[in-house]
Amino acid sequence: MKRFFIYLFRSLRIRIFLMIFLTGIISSLVILAATLANYEERAVDVNTQEAQTQMRILANHLITNNYLNDPSSQIISGELDMLSSLYDGRVLIIDDSLRVVRDTYGIAEGKTIISGEVVQCLKRGEAGAIARHDEQNGYIEMTTPIIETKSLEGGDITRGGSEKQEQIVRGVMLISISTEPILTTLAILKRKAVIIEIIILALLFVAALIGADLLSRPFDRITTAINDVKAGYTNQPITENAYMETEHIANAFNQLLLREKALDDSRQAFVANVSHELKTPMTSIKVLADSLNTQKDAPVELYRDFMEDITQEIDRENQIIDDLLELVRMDKQVSALNITQVDINQLTESVMKRLRPIARRMDVELTFESARQVTAEVDEVKLSMVVTNLVENAIKYNREHGVVRVTLDADHQYFTLAVEDTGAGIPEESLEHIYDRFYRVDKSRSREIGGTGLGLSITRTAVLMHRGTIEVQSREGEGSVFTVQIPLNHPTGMEART
Prior knowledge:
Oligomer: single chain
Largest sheet: 5 strands, antiparallel
CATH class of the largest domain: Alpha Beta
Shape: rod-shaped
Number of domains: 3
CATH superfamily of the largest domain: PAS domain
Order of helices and strands: HHHEEHEEEHHHEHEEHEEHHEEH
Structural class: alpha+beta
Number of strands: 12
Strand order of the largest sheet: 2-1-5-4-3
């Protein structure tokens, strides 16, 4: 049951269904309520306007027949009864002294009526005609003045004037109209509306199911395609452009798929390279050992030479293994860094001091220039390895009587270490591969000087762990410049992940 409710809340299909269904239901209910309310309001307005027209006509008849003074006219009484019957209401004729002249119910005639609406209508004439809808008691109450119009002499005919007229309010017609017919019709409409609402509900339910299924199908196709790739049935990119969102998901997955393929190819190449690199020293050792075994009376000097060669091959094997282990360790998260405040000038000088004997042996001049004193938050061991690899490579791959120049500088955000040599340089087609594991620009010379092809890969990994960058500029026959840029303050938290 818990899984079912989780599915309800997390399923895209269910959410689309609910969105369509609830939107349709709410919209139809709002439209229905507005329609019914508008009908009632419109019906009240129509009845009010019709009744006011009838009341004005009757008011004129009352004045014409002098009904306020002589209510014996059967014609006027019949018209009043007809109006009362037509609107299922009550009609009162009230004179200017607030006396009820005629009551269609026959219960208030001769009595005095005290009503604010009546008094206001007597005082204001036409402006006092009002209509009030009492929803609670179910009736409409209206007042209409009974006005007598008299002509006065004195109109200025020479100036285009006309007879002056005077309007005198002789009484008030008060009518109460029942709204029961309107409410009965409204009840009938509501019953029909309920039936229509049930039909709409069923149609919306079906439409929401179909719509949710159709709208979610592209996501189902993407899920199926991803599961096929996951199961190993295919490794082809997926295509789904029904929506922009599905297209973005497909593109992101295809990029991930390409990256996985690249990583897989890289792993295969790495395994092949490791196998080859580890196998080569072992082959040499086996050849040397077999040579000694085949010579029964070999001199001691030959044994010594062969054992020295075997020792060199073992050292080379150990160096490859050590570099591989270092790469594995550095492939871990940035949290493996031991960050401390380090004097970069002192660290660089210490590295160069260790490497000067190698530089002298290869007749290479080694210089260090610093624009300022630099202190940064770094892993001292890994940064020392970066400087060592770059300077040692610059020495080993330099020409005779060459120069290696190391420069250090910093701004308010980064420090920059540049290692420049006067060696043979790196071919342009090799620049993008120099950080690949086991890649060598000059394979023959790399083996001669004992290179494993892992130094620059280790260096680049260490720089990236510090959130830094490493760049190279090189021209064949002139030399190379490796430039490392690392933040002075090591980023942490969200900044580091970014």
